[in-house]
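Narrative of accomplishments. A recurring question from our advisory board has been how the design workflow behaves on a single, concrete structure rather than in aggregate. To address it, we present the structure tokens for one chain from the evaluation set, followed by the sequence designed for it. No filtering or post-editing was applied between the two.
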């Protein structure tokens, strides 16, 4: 089992990245600055979906993956991407729309991919990552690589057709894929429960197809890690697909500029007391590891400060880049 300090390091890096990206998308004071500081320009333009509060799920799962394992993400994918091994600076450059970003500054937050670490990409379409992961898993099975595919998705995705289609295909062909439902209990701006038939729907629908499902406290990083380790070992041993249903909470609004006033303040207050990073730090202090935790936090702050500085100074894409990475079926389309 992965040690808590290592898990804490990943969670803190994700939180630092999300906090800095949030500040950069809102303008206002500099990340970590005082309220009296001079405002900065908005450097992240366009939608920015934060995974603040959900760090334990990405961390606990990806701790047991190798670069050869493949992963698909969601529109809320920064945490998954970092946990899978992507470079924070290149990610920040992409958010800032700079030429040195993962997608040359043209993809933005929802389309970051890094094939070198097995990250097949975030995806702005709800549920779209599941069939991609299943296709990748089918290819892995045919090639007999021993690697697996993992697909993260939210609770809102289980009410869309591709969820059932992906699980059905994976079970019929006994594919090496782990489905991870990051159940943050809200779909965009609407509570998921009233519009989802059945209780524990993600797990129940998987089990109805014969796919073993495990529910876990998604704010307990050690519990997520232990559950993921077991499921991943089973998949590697040839068990076919598995589903991990992690119950967590999205601390921020749907996008970074959404104040989320549609939520009960008491609900948010209670959720913040269950913050996965706060819980993990408390355990580290109990185990006499407070100094190590503080160093991890300082290192994460320094890393993200450097990423911000690099992204701010990075060049914008050349105008000609607008015509690259485009497939056409005829000549003269852009004449």
């Amino acid at each position: 089992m992965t040690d808590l300090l290592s898990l804490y390091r990943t969670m803190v890096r994700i939180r630092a990245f999300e906090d800095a990206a949030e500040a950069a998308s809102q303008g206002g004071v500099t990340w970590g600055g005082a309220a009296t500081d001079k405002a900065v320009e908005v450097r992240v333009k366009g939608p920015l979906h934060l995974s603040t509060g959900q760090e334990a799920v990405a961390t606990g799962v990806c701790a047991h993956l190798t670069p050869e394992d493949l992963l698909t993400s969601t529109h809320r994918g920064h945490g998954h991407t970092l946990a899978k091994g992507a470079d924070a600076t290149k990610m920040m450059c992409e958010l800032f729309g700079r030429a040195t970003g993962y997608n040359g500054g043209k993809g933005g937050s929802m389309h970051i991919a890094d094939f070198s670490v097995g990250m097949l990409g975030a995806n702005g379409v709800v549920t779209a990552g599941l069939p991609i992961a299943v296709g990748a898993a089918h290819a892995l099975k045919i090639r007999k690589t021993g690697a697996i595919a993992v697909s993260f998705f939210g609770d809102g995705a289980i009410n869309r057709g591709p969820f059932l289609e992906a699980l059905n295909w994976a079970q019929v062909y006994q594919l090496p894929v782990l489905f991870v439902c990051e159940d943050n209990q809200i779909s965009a701006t609407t509570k998921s429960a009233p519009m989802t038939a059945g209780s524990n729907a993600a797990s129940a629908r998987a089990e109805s197809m014969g796919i073993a499902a495990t529910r876990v406290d998604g704010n307990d990083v050690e519990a997520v890690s232990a559950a993921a380790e077991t499921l991943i070992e089973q998949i590697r041993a040839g068990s076919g697909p598995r589903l991990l249903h992690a119950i967590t909470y999205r601390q921020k609004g749907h996008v970074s500029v959404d104040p989320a006033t549609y939520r009960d303040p008491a609900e948010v207050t209670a959720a913040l007391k269950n913050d996965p990073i706060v819980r993990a730090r408390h355990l580290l202090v109990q185990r006499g590891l407070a100094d190590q935790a503080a160093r991890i936090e300082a290192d994460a702050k320094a890393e993200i400060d450097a990423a911000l500085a690099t992204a701010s100074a990075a060049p914008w894409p050349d105008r000609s880049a607008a015509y690259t990475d485009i497939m056409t079926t005829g000549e003269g389309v852009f004449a």
